[in-house]
Specification:
The complex is a heterodimer of chains A (1095) and B (537). Chain A is an alpha/beta fold and 1095 residues long. Chain A contains 44 helices and 23 strands. In chain A, helix 11 runs antiparallel to helix 12, helix 18 packs across helix 21 and helix 34 crosses helix 35. The chains are: A alpha/beta (1095), B alpha+beta (537).
């Protein structure tokens, strides 16, 4: 008997199905079903994954959906052909667009309207046909059968309820009468009965109740799994027709996802030309610009021309011309019409074609990257080009895409948000009724292990017993839940573009953001189906560079672009080699700053390596130190080779030459898999994908064996093979290919160039682009001052919203901090103030009366000490500001927190014009003078930094008494007490705490005092003994051993003194250590010196 | 919950859960109010034991504070806990005022009263900071900021006592406090010698009002706690009484008084407390709860009588050996601690039962009499002695109902409303018994499923015949199987309970049985066992 299961609910019916689409397909195939129909609830979100599995097998896949109307009518719906599929997509889109994100509101009439070409299998209510409400269903079934005659069926489900013979017979009879014959389905929610517990768990998660209270919301038994044709035939032995019809329906549905053959949008190709011709024309025109006659009198260099010809031929062969044109179109718009900085990256981006098209600025001749190598590795998939845009202006690009292709043909991809371990154990624990303590402890153990289940020793570390049945059950179920899709979210910038209407291709839904929509498929699905996507991403550094270029033009008359920045400037490399890199793109983290002096970058390719080497991949593969040793000439360059009988000894030389025989990039690891471990390109790609997904438990194991045995079997050193695989594992989801590194390296150079040559410009540009990067404004300002830049405070008479440059005494420029540095201000309001300023405000009252800004804002400005040009310090300004309402300088009282500017001309009193203090005499009140230390604290409160002094300065005597030396002294190599291995005591505010996943429990801290920062390393044992202090202290003295490797200085912590409790006394001024208040110190949350912590 | 280990209460806010309150152990670990739970966990990680976390229940906090304030009416009738109308949350949700003017001497002076109050609160496990002052404002300030947790301020010393305290002591809104601090006015004293007008021009009226209130320059009305609706009646006795009869007689009189007030308010008592003030200063209390609101004097008094007798019988608390000669009661108070609306209802005139009988009240309707019966039975048998069936949402037949003690807190308010018990509604209640769908269930479910020998086809054929209790039944017809999976979460992980297949069978003489086979052939077992689980009519 042939049987096809047509009612399959996968876990893409979120919190309903309990198996992956792949598992469903594989099981159905293994059981010998004729076909399987995937029908998730008002969605096609899971079908591509099922399709990907089914095309590896012989089983036929039916793509369908379970339509559920808002009033509860349910019908499995299968399109017969492509047209019907398109109608179904449109129907779901309509329902999605009517509802909020994640819901779909369909009416029964909507379903009728889209019925052409669909096969319907109506699902009767559980109590049908005996209970109230049944007549509704019957009416609708009749209507449906009338509208879709011959294509409407009635689902018979064997529930094992005991009354089946009677109930199914009634249904069959009713079906005959209404023209909707009975079809056997099993309403599958999981692929094997063993998944019933998980199905119950997700039901509880959905219903937000613990298992013990879920009651009848759970299923009564484990029968909702895929059953064999024989068993279905036995269950429906009185209704053989109902079984036979399943196979007939499967046969009638001719639609397959194969038919969604991609058609490129025509827009970028002018009429009368083919895409390839157009691309070639643009490329050669671009090449002529890149290699102008003035510099290249013989025209385009021959090697470049040869390369362009090769690449164009490959593009033609693979039919990628449309793709390059589309990306070029977007980039050209941004760059030429909007003057938005942008840069491409990704495997195809570093081609000579992309360079000539202006998609990237990385000259492939310099970076020695071979386009063909990247393309050939992923044959059959569209090339991958991500384009980064200035983060504040990306929206303009997105709007352009919508404008050019129309919202009916352009949409953002989905991102499938999966259950990760922490969330999974939390949900499962809650449902199982574990106490929050236990669940939290379990969740906590998986820090830094987002993908896998929970190893026993982690459970033990959490202080829990892995043998405890309740814990084992929770862990086992959470392990199954990990990797389940939870909901769809909007991808950050992946666009899908089509030639025809998109809503006939895939359902579109509302995003959480207003006016945003996204399709139901994610980027992997798009890849699987071979559709085209363009990634429009945002990058803060591009905004910073844009501002830097603008400021250089305005204040220094320099007309530069990323492409025309002077290349090969020795001073830039010297600066980076000193690890003088605060604010520089990608190489400003502490790990990078430790690497820079080791690597001593001398040229562009060194920057490419610098960017790529401090990553989990090379670190986990243990590749960093071998590379550095070879670079320093300590270790000879050596190329691993196979045994002579298996191939040429230099087979890896080509792959590894650029990196001295040590694989550092993702492409190299993939190439090793192909060359040395004899993976097929498909397998290598499968490996890369397996690594990039969360749930890689089973598959990775197979790849690992194949990889290591493959290499070892061909005579490679097994340790080398293991390291290579470790590296691949390290790449994980953050695989870092050489092509990305090259694009990033260009931005490293550009940002370093501005920082080195125009530190004033760099400081203003990066402050105006916040938040971005690794450091807070206080550190950026401190760094700029250390480089001789004068920084001027925010002032109502001098500042603009952004930080600006003002001429300084030496013919250079000082940075005037902008109002944006003050927390909690409204940009529009401050711009109004600047516009009303004229030649400056003479008094705070005048300012209030003429600028029309709120008293709330004036008080914020006073708190930021921004009235100094009016001879008011912060207390005097605040005192004056609080009176403004009273004397009528403000039309009406503004509740604090309300920043809505009020039109100042509304109700200004007559007196305003002559406003001055004399008109409103009042007894004078002497305000207590604010000590400098409190000013510093208030500066931090208002702006997160102080130009007046560093807080630690006020404790210097105290610190000296503790034996602490100023941090700057650490650099003073000649001093006796700061030699290698000296025991030193340093102190400062805790700026950063990090415990990176790759560091095996080592904590890195950065302390800052008034002279410099000090880098601290805390080994795990020391950390465990001092955990509380290390995790919580904000002001610390640390005693430890000095370690000096070249320019990199660390203090390896041995003991700690928590000085945090001193901080509140900053507010008490001169007499720092004499408690005065009976109530004790001011609560220290008033001192905003918080570290940034990364766990 | 271990009070010696770190323990925090958390509240959801932007950025996740934040700590709202914590115990000393948590403070010792460096945790602080306001930080996120995630940070706190990071800090507490690896310390002995784990952080104990519970969600903050603000309503429960309020209720607890009110309870303590109510309790404190033993010192003075005017106890005034935090009121949302008067103060902002920060400045009062942690305490209450007592107006002890004219009450302190009863306890031997203010110091003694304070010491007694502190000692009793400590017995409750409540560490407290207490202060006595001439104005509520000064008392609040000193209780929160004075170095000593118990402090009595002589009248007239307010200004000097407050001068050194931080401005926080003035119960100001956070923004005013912050502004004062930023302007440099850090202590109350820094404000007191300044001209008023500039402050009036710059600050909300609250600032000067609070200063004046603290110094006694303007009045501050306190709103005494009133438990809505709470009724109380107190009787001071000229001669101490010593017998249960005498107590009951007084109780009757007090209840008469209260019943009139209740009737006026259309209310009925749900819980009452009898306070017996002993000559030696101790207070004995007897609480009773009622199934339905009532104002029936005889019923209430009868319940107190039963309760007193029961108390006397179980533990020897003054009633055991009669009323001791040396200890009598000098006052007796009856309070209605919980009252509910009890609208007047039409009395069933046709009720045959108009005379006084053992059930107590006669002038009520069936529901009231039923409730009175339950109260009385519970009085005799104890609260656990009266039970009823409650439905449970479970597919496992023997778990689908449980016995609960009727009239306990959950059942009383929810399930036993008078309306539910009107005779005509009884059918409705029956119908509301929840069932997942149309599953047939036997009239009689055996207390324990009984093993049986069955002949049936493998894997899931219906029984042909079975033997049970020594008789063999031949089956004429059957329906099934109804497949019921085990509640897997009740078995330890790694073990599975077998699935049951239930059959409704009928033998040739028309007996109908409910049988099940335990274990699915193939998937779970190779040798299934059979049980009889119930009988149909």
């Amino acid at each position: 008997m042939r049987y096809a299961e047509l009612a399959v609910t996968t876990n893409f019916s979120f919190l309903r199905g309990a198996s992956h689409p792949q598992e469903m397909v594989a099981t159905a195939d293994a059981l010998g079903l004729a076909a399987i129909g995937i029908a998730d609830r008002n969605s096609f979100a899971g079908v591509v994954r099922a399709y990907d599995e089914a095309r590896k097998r012989t089983i036929k896949l039916l793509v369908g959906t379970r339509l559920v109307s808002v009033d509860g009518f349910e019908a499995l719906t299968y399109p017969i052909d492509r047209k019907a599929y398109g109608r179904l997509c449109q129907l779901l889109t309509k329902g999605n667009r009517k509802a909020k994100k994640g819901e779909c509101h369909l009416s029964f009439d909507d379903i009728l309207d889209a019925s052409e070409g669909q096969i319907f299998i109506a699902l009767p209510p559980l109590t049908f046909p005996s209970r109230a409400g049944s007549t509704d269903f019957l009416t609708r079934l009749t209507a449906l059968a009338h509208t879709a005659p011959g294509r409407t069926f009635l689902a018979g489900i064997h529930y094992h309820r005991g009354d089946e013979p009677r109930r199914l017979a009634l249904l069959a009879e009713l079906g005959e009468r209404t023209g909707a014959p009975l079809v056997a389905v099993n309403d599958v929610h999981y692929h094997v009965p063993e998944r019933r517990p998980l199905a119950d768990i997700v039901t509880c998660v959905r219903e937000k109740c613990p298992l013990a209270e879920a009651g009848f919301r759970l299923t009564v038994n484990a029968e909702r799994h895929i059953k064999s044709p024989d068993e279905m035939a036995r269950l429906f032995k009185n209704f053989p027709d109902a079984i036979a019809r399943t196979a007939a329906i499967a046969k009638a549905c001719r639609f397959s996802l194969d038919q969604l053959r991609y058609e490129y949008p025509d827009e970028p190709v002018p009429p009368g030309k083919t895409a390839q011709q157009h691309l070639a024309d643009l490329t050669w025109a671009g090449a002529a610009k890149r290699y102008p006659k003035t510099l290249f009198p013989n025209g385009i260099p021959a090697n470049v021309a040869k390369r362009l010809n090769e690449e164009l031929a490959l593009i033609e062969e693979l039919k990628y011309a449309h793709y390059f044109l589309t990306v070029h179109d977007v980039v050209a718009y941004a760059r030429e019409q909007k003057n938005i900085l942008c840069q491409g990256r990704g495997s195809a981006a570093n081609s000579a074609v992309c360079y000539c098209l202006g998609i990237t600025e990385v000259n492939p001749n310099e970076s020695q990257l071979l386009f063909a190598r990247f393309i050939s590795a992923n044959r059959g998939e569209p090339p991958d080009i991500d384009v980064d845009f200035e983060h504040e202006r990306r929206e303009e690009v997105i709007q352009y895409i919508y404008g050019r292709y129309g919202r009916h043909r352009a949409a953002i991809c989905a991102t499938v948000i999966h259950y990760r371990s922490r969330r999974a154990i939390r949900e499962v624990g809650k449902v199982l009724g574990l106490t929050e303590d236990v669940t939290a402890a379990l969740a906590k153990t998986v820090w830094g292990h987002s993908g896998d289940g929970l190893p026993d020793d982690h459970i033990r570390q959490a202080g829990l017993d892995p043998a405890n049945p309740a814990i084992r059950q929770a862990v086992a179920l959470a392990g199954e839940l990990i990797g389940f899709p939870r909901h769809l979210s909007q991808h950050v910038g992946g666009f899908v573009l089509t030639r025809g209407p998109l809503d006939e291709l895939v359902p579109i839904g509302n995003a959480a953001m207003d006016e945003r929509t996204f399709i139901e498929w994610d980027k992997d699905d798009i890849d699987t189906l071979g559709l085209m996507k363009v990634d429009v991403l945002a990058l803060g550094m591009l905004s910073c560079l844009r501002r830097g270029l603008d400021l250089m033009q305005r204040h220094y008359g320099l007309d530069l672009t990323l492409a025309t920045l002077p290349q090969g400037d020795r001073a830039i490399y010297a600066m980076l080699s000193r690890a003088d890199s605060i604010g520089v793109f990608q190489v400003e983290s502490r790990a990078q700053m430790s690497m820079l002096p080791r690597l001593q970058p001398q040229n562009f390719y060194d920057l490419v390596i610098e960017v790529a080497i401090v990553r989990p991949g090379p670190i986990q593969g243990d590749m960093v130190h071998p590379y550095l040793r070879r670079r320093d000439g300590i270790e000879p360059e050596h190329y691993p080779s196979p045994a002579p009988e298996h191939g040429p000894a230099d087979e890896l030389q080509e792959v590894l030459k650029r990196t001295l025989g040590v694989p550092l990039f993702q492409e190299q690891a993939m190439q090793i898999a192909i060359t040395a471990a004899k993976f097929t390109p498909d397998e290598a790609d499968g490996l890369r994908r397996a690594m990039a997904t969360f749930r890689h438990t089973g598959k990775v194991h197979l790849f690992r064996d194949k990889f290591i045995n493959g290499m070892a079997g061909r005579g490679y050193d097994r340790t080398f093979a293991e390291h290579c695989f470790g590296q691949i594992e390290g790449f994980g989801e953050y695989g870092f290919p050489e092509s990305h590194a090259a694009s990033f390296a260009l931005l490293v150079y550009a940002s370093a160039w501005i920082k080195c040559r125009y530190p004033d410009v760099f400081c203003a540009a990066i402050l105006n682009s916040q938040p971005m990067g690794f450091y807070q404004p206080a550190q950026l300002v401190r760094d700029a001052r250390a480089h001789g830049v004068e920084i001027r405070p925010v002032d109502v008479n001098d500042s603009a919203w952004d930080c600006t440059l003002e001429p300084d005494a030496d013919g250079g420029h000082a940075v005037r901090l902008g109002f944006r540095q003050i927390h909690g201000l409204n940009k529009d309001e401050l711009e109004k103030l600047v516009a009303a300023r004229g030649n400056g405000f003479a008094s705070i009252e005048r300012l209030a009366a003429t600028s029309g800004i709120s008293r709330f804002t004036i008080e914020r400005l006073a708190e930021a000490d921004a009235f100094r040009s009016l001879n008011l310090d912060r207390r005097q300004a605040l005192w004056a500001a609080r009176r403004l309402d009273m004397i009528g300088a403000r039309p009406r009282r503004i509740a604090s927190g309300n920043t809505t500017p009020i039109n100042a001309t509304d109700t200004l009193p007559l007196l305003t014009a002559h406003l001055s203090d004399e008109l409103f005499p009042e007894p004078s009140v002497t305000l207590p003078a604010m000590p400098l230390s409190e000013h510093v604290v208030e500066d931090y409160v208002a702006t997160g930094m102080s130009l007046k002094a560093h807080p630690v300065k006020f404790f210097r005597d105290r610190l000296s008494a503790l034996g602490a030396i100023p941090n700057a002294q650490l650099r003073n190599e000649k001093e006796e007490n700061v030699r290698q291995d000296s025991i030193v005591t340093v102190a400062g505010l805790v700026l950063v705490r990090q415990r990176p996943g790759t560091s095996k429990g080592v904590v890195f801290m950065t302390l800052e005092d008034e002279t410099d920062i000090a880098n601290i390393i805390v080994w795990p044992k020391v950390f465990e003994r001092n955990r509380r202090i290390v995790m919580t202290a904000r002001f610390l003295a640390i005693r430890g051993r000095l370690q000096r490797v070249g320019l990199v200085i660390h203090v390896v912590a041995e003991s700690f003194t928590d000085l945090s409790l001193l901080l509140p006394w900053l507010r008490e001024g001169g007499d720092l250590f004499a408690p005065k208040l009976a109530g004790g110190p001011i609560p220290d949350d008033a001192i905003p010196l918080r570290s940034r912590d990364f766990h | 919950m271990d009070p010696d280990r770190p323990f925090v209460l958390v509240v959801a806010a932007s950025g996740g859960l934040h700590i709202a309150a914590l115990n000393a152990a948590a403070q010792d670990h460096g945790l602080a109010v306001g930080e996120t739970l995630a940070d706190a966990r990071a800090k507490a990680e690896g310390l002995q034991g784990d952080l104990q976390v519970r969600p903050l229940d603000a309503a429960a906090d309020d209720a607890a504070l009110r309870r303590v304030a109510l309790w404190a009416t033993r010192y003075t009738p005017t106890a005034s806990p935090w009121s949302r109308d008067l103060w902002d949350e920060e400045n009062g949700a942690d305490g209450f005022f007592l107006d002890i003017e004219g009450a302190a001497h009863l306890f031997g002076g203010e110091d003694k009263l304070l010491a007694d109050l502190a000692a009793r609160l400590k017995d409750f496990g409540l560490p407290a900071r207490l202060a006595v002052a001439a104005t509520p404002g000064a008392a609040w300030a000193l209780s929160h900021f004075h170095a000593s947790p118990l402090f009595v301020l002589p009248s007239g010393d307010e200004a000097s006592a407050l001068a050194d305290l931080p401005v926080d002591a003035l119960r100001l809104q956070p923004d005013i406090r912050g502004s004062l601090r930023r302007l440099g006015f850090k202590t109350v004293g820094a404000l007191l010698d300044k001209p008023r007008a500039p402050f009036a021009a710059r600050f909300a009226a609250q600032l000067l009002r609070r200063v004046d209130q603290a110094l006694g320059l303007c009045d501050e009305p306190l709103v005494p706690i009133v438990a809505p609706p709470v009724y109380h009646s107190l009787h001071y006795l000229l001669e101490p009484i010593m017998t249960q009869e005498a107590v009951i007689a007084r109780t009757d009189r007090l209840m008469q008084t209260l019943a009139n007030v209740l009737a006026r308010d259309d209310a009925g008592a749900r819980a009452l407390r009898l306070c017996l003030y002993r000559v030696d200063g101790a207070v004995e209390t007897v609480d009773i709860g009622l199934t339905l609101p009532t104002r029936n004097v005889a019923h209430v008094v009868r319940l107190f009588d039963l309760k007193l007798a029961a108390l006397a019988a179980t533990h020897d608390t003054g009633f055991g050996s009669g009323f001791g000669a040396e200890f009598g009661y000098e006052a007796i108070g009856l309070a209605i601690t919980c009252a509910e609306p009890m609208p007047a209802r039409q009395i069933e005139i046709s009720s045959a039962d108009l005379s006084d009988d053992a059930l107590g009240p006669t002038n009520g309707d069936a529901a009231e009499r039923y409730a009175a019966l339950i109260d009385t039975l519970r009085g005799r048998l104890g609260t656990q002695g009266v039970r009823r069936f409650e439905p449970v949402e479970s597919y496992i037949p023997e778990r689908a109902e449980i016995l609960t003690a009727d009239g306990d807190e959950k059942a009383s308010s929810e399930d036993l409303r008078a309306e539910d018990l009107h005779a005509e509604d009884l059918h409705a209640e029956e119908a509301a018994w929840p069932l997942a769908d149309e599953r047939s269930r036997p009239l009689l479910l055996l207390p324990q499923a009984e093993p049986t020998e069955v002949t049936a086809l493998v894997p899931d054929g219906p029984p042909r015949r079975f033997s049970w209790r020594g008789v063999t039944y031949y089956i004429a017809g059957s329906q099934g199987p109804e497949r019921i999976g085990a509640e897997w979460w009740r078995t330890p992980y790694g073990q599975t309970r077998p699935t049951r297949d239930y059959y409704l069978v009928e033998d040739f003489s028309g007996h109908r049985f409910w049988l099940y086979r335990e274990g699915l052939y193939g998937r779970e077992t190779t040798n299934a066992r059979w049980y009889v689980h119930g009988l149909f009519a």
